[in-house]
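Renewal narrative, Specific Aim 1. Our central claim is that a sequence can be written position by position from structural information alone. The example that follows is taken directly from our test logs and has not been curated for this report. It begins with the structure tokens describing the chain, in the order in which they were read.
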């Protein structure tokens, strides 16, 4: 085999490993992004434990197909960036936040689809995924609710104790 074919096989294996190791994978159409915009996006993804990569569509398609997933074949055309997420929502949320902060990016980078829990999500699914808070935020909200209830209970007990003390 030629060295080029062997190198492509190694890249396909690398992509497969990243897909399997990631909790989510988001494919996005990027068009006319400047180097500064790409660098800023990469930094945001890196801070959120995600990896932004640009691979040839045929190699990404082959990696998905070798994993038995053919849903992405139609979406792998044009300039496509692949983001491997460290958690379920961060990659989609960063796209949404970046376009909200900088409206000029809305036409330059558009999420096409995502792969989450062995399922294909279309463009609307990616938008819905971006709206879900991260696991840490959900846990913090739940703990806040629990703490609030406990605090109110302690306040009521304290009020009862003060009322009895005042009556005596």
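The sequence written for that structure reads:
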């Amino acid at each position: 085999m030629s060295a080029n074919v062997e190198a492509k096989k190694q890249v396909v294996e690398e992509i497969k490993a990243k897909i399997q190791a990631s909790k989510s994978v988001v494919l996005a159409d990027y068009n006319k992004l400047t180097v500064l915009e790409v660098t800023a996006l990469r930094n945001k993804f890196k801070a959120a434990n995600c990896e932004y990569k640009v691979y040839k569509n045929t190699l990404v398609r082959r990696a998905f197909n070798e994993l038995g997933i053919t849903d992405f074949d139609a979406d792998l055309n044009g300039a496509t960036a692949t983001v491997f997420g460290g958690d379920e929502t961060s990659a989609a949320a960063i796209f949404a936040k970046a376009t909200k902060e900088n409206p000029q990016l809305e036409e330059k980078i558009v999420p096409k689809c995502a792969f989450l829990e062995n399922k294909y999500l279309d463009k609307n699914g990616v938008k819905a995924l971006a709206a879900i808070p991260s696991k840490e935020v959900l846990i913090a909200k739940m703990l806040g609710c629990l703490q609030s209830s406990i605090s109110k209970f302690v306040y009521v007990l304290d009020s009862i104790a003060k009322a009895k003390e005042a009556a005596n």
